[in-house]
Amino acid sequence: MGQVITFLDAHCECTEGWLEPLLARIVLDRKTVVCPIIDVISDETFEYVTASDQTWGGFNWKLNFRWYRVPAREMQRRNHDRTAPLRTPTMAGGLFSIDRDYFYEIGSYDEGMDIWGGENLEMSFRIWQCGGILEIAPCSHVGHVFRDKSPYTFPGGVANIVLKNAARVAEVWLDEWKEFYYQMSPGARKASAGDVSERKELRERLKCKSFRWYLENIYPESQMPLDYYFLGEIRNVETGNCLDTMGRKSNEKIGSSYCHGLGGNQVFAYTKRHQVMSDDNCLDASNALGPVNLVRCHGMGGNQEWVYDEEDKTIKHVNSGNCLTRPTQDDPSTPLLRPCKYTKGQQWLMQSKFKWQAQHDNRISDDR
User: Fold this and answer.
1) How far apart (Å, rounded) are the C-alpha atoms in residues 254 and 293?
2) I want to staple 132 with a disulfide (CB 3.0 to 4.6 A). Which of 64, 127, 293, 312 is the partner?
């Protein structure tokens, strides 16, 4: 029986020399779990497209797995050697190698999960918090057919299954951040996580570290609220309306609407990097007079750097020197960027502390 288990989805194509880089890392440390770079195979033409070696695995406020650009910090740790193994906060799942004994020592898979979704984040958190290392080996490439729709059937609906699995992750591994997750994804609280007592006992038995430790040491670039001044709704003094993503995607305009107090699209973080952030998108203005768009956060200031003045209540765009301004009557749902005149239309309140932050405010601000 082999000493290493390698998981691959059925719809994969392995390139020459794909396995050796994975095994080589496990030989050096049996607690290292290694993933290949996942190349793209078209589901229509089977064309093979090499993926970037400059991305790693992360996740957003709703615990959806995402690929993000590798930060400078990790590049420096690797001495800018793009062939060196990359320490990744999370894995995509389905393609990795692990020492067989170690796989069972740390709890294999959570058998309380159903069908699809969430298992990759659960295993990623477990590996890091319980003393392991999760890597991507840039010299290992495996192609994967990415389909435009799921081939699986989900009894009770896909949302229920995925949310149940995510709720299990939150209950066992996220500590106080599970309450933040439930505020961002209310459906997950309604989707019963089921009995997680065995997984909590596993975590205790393995003496695993906290989710705060994970965010501070493994994934300080995470969008999860940790390093920030404020989390909650941002309300305009003159209109009484709140900034609102309106459910829009990256590279679309920020919106404004009636303050509903229900969180979701009206929850913004004002971070210590001077970002105004909603999930993994930040307010961004590439021109002095806007528009103000939601753009994937890059953490490097520039067009995404804003300063909130608690006295005059302005949100000033550092690059242009202009201020975030209430919408006009012609377009009442689109905030503007205009020269600062310190009128009520340019005053914004960051006062309504989000319930989750209020419960943990001291702990979060004091620890950083």
Assistant:
1) 5
2) 127
- In whole angstroms, give the CA distance from residue 252 to residue 249: 6
What is the Cα–Cα distance from 99 to 156, expressed in whole angstroms? Answer: 36
Tens of pLDDT along 278-305? Answer: 988 999 999 999 899 999 988 788 999 9
Nearest to 69 by CA among 94, 45, 48, 86: 86
With residue 41 as reference, give the H or E element that holds it.
Answer: strand 32-42
pLDDT tens track for 232-241:
899 999 999 9
Q: Give residue 38's pLDDT band: very low, low, confident or very high (50, 70, 90).
A: very high
Distance, CA of 227 to CA of 304 (rounded, Å): 16
Q: pTM for this structure?
A: 0.81
Helix (H), strand (E) at residue 236: strand 235-236
Per the CB < 8 A criterion, the answer to whether 243 and 234 are in contact is: yes
Contact predicate 88/77, CB 8 Å: no
Q: Which of 59, 234, 67, 185 is CA-nearest to residue 136?
A: 67
Burial class (CB in 10 A: 0-12, 13-18, 19+), 199: buried
Domains belonging to the chain, first-starting first, are 4-147+155-218 (3.90.550.10), 228-349 (2.80.10.50)
Residue 323 contacts residue 346 (beta carbons within 8 Å): yes
Q: Are 292 and 254 in contact (CB under 8 A)?
A: yes
Phi, psi of 359 (to 5 degrees): -70, -25
| Tokens (6 digits) for 320 | 């242009």
Amino acid present at 238: E
**Is the distance from CB of 132 to CB of 221 less than 8 angstroms?**
no
- 330 in Cβ contact with 304 (< 8 Å): no
pLDDT in tens, 175-203: 988 888 887 787 777 778 789 999 999 99
Are the CB atoms for 41 and 144 separated by under 8 Å? Answer: yes
Q: For the chain, count helices (H), then strands (E).
A: 10, 23
